[in-house]
C-alpha cells in the first residue's frame, strides 16, 4: 500500500528550503559579511521593502517607512539581509538600504535621560515611546544616546536596538 503523506519527505523539503537561511545561534556569523548574527543596523532609506525571499522576484510583505529605524539582521543571502523590527515584522531587504550606524527605539514612555549611567543622577530630558535616537555607547545596563539634539544616559531596558553584549564589561 502506498502512503500519500510521508513526514520524512516534508522534513527533507523543509531542509532544502531553509538551506540558504542559516538558523540563529549565539556565536553565528553571516556567511556573506562574516559579521555576527543577529546584529543591529538602521534603515538608511526613507522607505524599504521587506520581501518574502531574497530577490526582487519575491512578493513585498512589509514596507518600512521610517528612516534611521533600528532593525535586527537575522540572516544573509547574497546582497540581501533578513531583518526584523521591534515588533518582529520584517523580511528580506536589499543591503543598500541598510546602514551600520546604530540607532535605538525608545520603548518606554517618558524614558529618562540622565547625566551619568546612574538612576540617581540628574534627569536632563525625557523621551516618548517611539522616539529614535543615535546610539553613542553602552556601559553595563545603560546606553548613551542622542535624540532631538539632546544626549543622555538611558536605561538599556527602555530601548530596543541593543542587546546584552552591548557595553558588557
In short:
A 5-stranded antiparallel β-sheet has the order 6-5-4-1-7, with no helix packed on it. The N terminus is likely disordered. A hairpin with a 2-residue loop joins strand 12 and strand 13.
Annotation keywords:
SH3 type barrels; 5-stranded antiparallel sheet; 1 helix; 7% helix; elongated
Write the layout of secondary structure elements.
Blueprint: H1 7-17, E1 39-43, E2 48-51, E3 60-64, E4 70-77, E5 80-84, E6 90-94, E7 98-99, E8 103-106, E9 111-114, E10 123-127, E11 132-139, E12 142-147, E13 150-155, E14 159-160
Question: What can you tell me about this protein's structure?
Answer:
The protein is mostly beta strands. It folds into 2 domains: 36-101, SH3 Domains (SH3 type barrels); 104-160, Roll (SH3 type barrels). The protein has 1 helix and 14 strands. The protein has one helix spanning 7-17, and strands at residues 39-43, 48-51, 60-64, 70-77, 80-84, 90-94, 98-99, 103-106, 111-114, 123-127, 132-139, 142-147, 150-155, 159-160. A hairpin with a 2-residue loop joins strand 12 and strand 13. The radius of gyration is 19 Å and the shape is elongated.
Report, as a whole number of angstroms, the end-to-end distance.
63 Å
- Tell me the CATH topology of the largest domain: SH3 type barrels
Structural class: mainly beta
**Overall pLDDT metric:** 87
Instruction: Indicate how many domains the architecture comprises.
Output: 2
Q: What CATH architecture label of the largest domain applies?
A: Roll
CATH superfamily of the largest domain: SH3 Domains
The SSE order reads: HEEEEEEEEEEEEEE
Low-confidence stretches: 1-25
Strand order of the largest sheet: 6-5-4-1-7
* Computed CA radius of gyration, to the nearest angstrom: 19 Å
Helix content: under 10%
Assigned CATH class of the largest domain: Mainly Beta
Number of strands: 14
Biggest sheet architecture: 5 strands, antiparallel
Globally, the shape reads elongated
Number of helices: 1
What percentage of the residues does DSSP assign to strands (E)? 35-45%
Amino acid at each position: 500500500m502506498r502512503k500519500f503523506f510521508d513526514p520524512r519527505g516534508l522534513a527533507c523539503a523543509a531542509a532544502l528550503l531553509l538551506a540558504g537561511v542559516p538558523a540563529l545561534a549565539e556565536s553565528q556569523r553571516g556567511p556573506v559579511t562574516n559579521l555576527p548574527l543577529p546584529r543591529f543596523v538602521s534603515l538608511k532609506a526613507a522607505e524599504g521593502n521587506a520581501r518574502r525571499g531574497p530577490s526582487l522576484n519575491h512578493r513585498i510583505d512589509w514596507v518600512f517607512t521610517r528612516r534611521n529605524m533600528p532593525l535586527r539582521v537575522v540572516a544573509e543571502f547574497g546582497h540581501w539581509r533578513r531583518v526584523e523590527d521591534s515588533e518582529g515584522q520584517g523580511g528580506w531587504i536589499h543591503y543598500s538600504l541598510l546602514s551600520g550606524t546604530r540607532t535605538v527605539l525608545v520603548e518606554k514612555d517618558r524614558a529618562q535621560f540622565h547625566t551619568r549611567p546612574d538612576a540617581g543622577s540628574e534627569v536632563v530630558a525625557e523621551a516618548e515611546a517611539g522616539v529614535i535616537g543615535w546610539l553613542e555607547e553602552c556601559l553595563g545596563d545603560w546606553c548613551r544616546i542622542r535624540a532631538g539634539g539632546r544626549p543622555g544616559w538611558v536605561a538599556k531596558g527602555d530601548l530596543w536596538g541593543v542587546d546584552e553584549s552591548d557595553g558588557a564589561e
